[in-house]
Amino acid sequence: MSQDIYPVPAGFAAGARIDASGYEAAYRRSLEDPAGFWAEAGRRLDWITPYSPDAVKDVSFGGPGAASGDVHIRWFHDGTLNVAANCLDRHLGPRGDKVAILWEGDNPADSRAITYRQLHAEVSRFANALLALGVQKGDRVTIYLPMIPEAAVAMLACARIGAIHSIVFGGFSPDSLAGRIVDCGSKIVITADEGLRAGKTVPLKANTDKALDQAPGVETVVVVRRTGGKIGFQEGRDHWYHDLIAKADPVNEPAPQNAEDPLFILYTSGSTGKPKGVLHTTGGYLVYAAMTHEYVFDVRDDDIYWCTADVGWVTGHSYIVYGPLANGATTLMFEGVPTYPDASRFWQVIDKYGVTIFYTAPTAIRSLMREGEALVKTTSRASLRLLGSVGEPINPEAWAWYHKVVGDERCPIVDTWWQTETGGILITPLPGAIALKPGSATLPFFGIAPQVVDAEGKVLEGATEGNLVIADSWPGQMRSVYGDHERFVQTYFSTYPGKYFTGDGCRRDEDGYYWITGRVDDVINVSGHRMGTAEVESALVAHPKVAEAAVVGYPHDLKGQGIYAYVTLNAGEDPTDALKKDLVAWVRREIGPIASPDLIQFAPGLPKTRSGKIMRRILRKIAENEFGALGDTSTLADPGVVTDLIENRQNR
Ligand code: WT7
């Protein structure tokens, strides 16, 4: 573990939003008087009906000491506001002609600059178009789009009329799309003819058509023309986006929403069952996304801010669209991939637009690091002043390369720890206030009360290691699992009653810095994307030749974790390499490319207890190639299977 400390660069501290003593004072106040602290912070937004002081925080995490046994989370609950008005209308006066979205296409020749005024006009028209299609407040709208400005337009148009968007990442399969449409009961899907990535097309409309065979409740499909490729078009059901925009009234009054009205649903993988619909609401979410965006990235009016995530993930929601636009920033949206046309694309784009703040994932850094320094050094990157990292722990080698080669040792790196469920960043350096340690997300943001607990829930003090929980609420926290509040309570508040359980393990050092060590549940983190092992297993067992499957993560040089699948075939099936290929293709088709197993081992038997429970601990060790330390195997029903598993292990 690296012991290096990088103090705040002097030049950076001078102009930063907040310094070390400012951070300490604000952090202390935020925990001592959360309602007072957030009442003040909430004023960064324009409210239609202001919240009253006693409605700022109304929270119960349940648990033993709670007055009320139920779990409920409400912030600013008697206030009303409109998210789109906060992201657009209020900026028209001071910065109507400022660029809101800079768009860089997959092809470097394609780009667009959309001002706040233009974005406001387009969102207003599309909001009217949605209303004309019969979309009402509270309706769920599924968005299955590539990284084009129309994705942000669709999100903001939903927010403007109080519809709840549910974005499904464009890399997901028709089956995954169908599952998400059906789960939230949406009657409308917004998609594109095709997506474009690294010069190749992605058949989004065709995927949607396939998904709708399994989601008969959908009555309306809106199609953005992106490539002009040939698609099927069902008259009556399908509508071109550009036709709707052309016909729509350009004036739309933003509809007041209660602070606790739902803003969006975003599906994420857990340790069991199907992906859950994480539900975020309006007021608290936007306060938290905007405030963290401003403080963590030290954003000023002249910054060119670039987050390389996809709007299909929460990072895209909070830190490409909602946080930056609420702050009136210029946010860059990139359609392509880091390695096309070549592996200097990120650095080219930084120079092209004069990007000052750059936020990406460790997996991207590792893959570009492998391409060598020369590709970076052909570019200037002189505009950069701050770098960010998100999605998984960043290994110290990648951190050092990012700092030295990309940032020329000039730019602090904010390693931001958070989750789909948290709505915004919870543990992070504030770049003008907190000295950095490579690999540590450092200290909690305002209002965040992390605790490290042992397996029994005992709170561990000082330098220690255990499971990470958050002891109290913050405004950006998810409110429920859509349609299944009981699952929300079970998943997050039952392991350690009265506390939010993150699912992550962590170490706290002698300076109080947090070091996230990874998931402690059956979730794996592949290239910064969450995948439930249970989901991959159920895709595998759906194959006609598969009897049983167990999936675990193992360390992977580029992806952080890779997917290792143990597969037991039906009697009489041949364990061939061709079948392995077929299984990989099968999982890609069932879930999407991000779920592709990296290694498959055919296993005549899986290690089980006498009661039939698969001992994943053993499977994990073998996948990690650490079969010398399997621990206690005496409870196995048939210890013999382990010998076979070790002999035929795939990660050597
Ligand atoms: C899980 C959440 C939040 C945006 C992207 C992922 C891991 C995330 C870090 C970080 C160490 C991290 C955790 C977390 N994670 N950021 N900076 N350091 N681990 O969102 O898909 O909901 O995944 O990603 O394990 O629980 P997500």
Automatic annotation (TrEMBL):
Protein name, as recorded: Acetyl-coenzyme A synthetase
Protein species of origin: Zavarzinia compransoris
Domain AMP-dependent synthetase/ligase, residue spans: 93-472
Signal peptide residue numbers: none
Function: Catalyzes the conversion of acetate into acetyl-CoA (AcCoA), an essential intermediate at the junction of anabolic and catabolic pathways. AcsA undergoes a two-step reaction. In the first half reaction, AcsA combines acetate with ATP to form acetyl-adenylate (AcAMP) intermediate. In the second half reaction, it can then transfer the acetyl group from AcAMP to the sulfhydryl group of CoA, forming the product AcCoA.
UniProt-listed Enzyme Commission number(s): 6.2.1.1
Claim: RNA-binding is one of the keywords in the record: no
Top-rank taxon, per record: Bacteria
Pfam families assigned to the protein according to its UniProt record, in alphabetical order: ACAS_N, AMP-binding, AMP-binding_C
PTM characteristics: Acetylated. Deacetylation by the SIR2-homolog deacetylase activates the enzyme.
Enzyme class name: ligase
Keywords attached to this entry: Acetylation, ATP-binding, Ligase, Magnesium, Metal-binding, Nucleotide-binding
InterPro entries: Ac_CoA_lig, ACAS_N, AMP-bd_C, AMP-bd_C_sf, AMP-binding_CS, AMP-dep_synth/lig_dom, ANL_N_sf
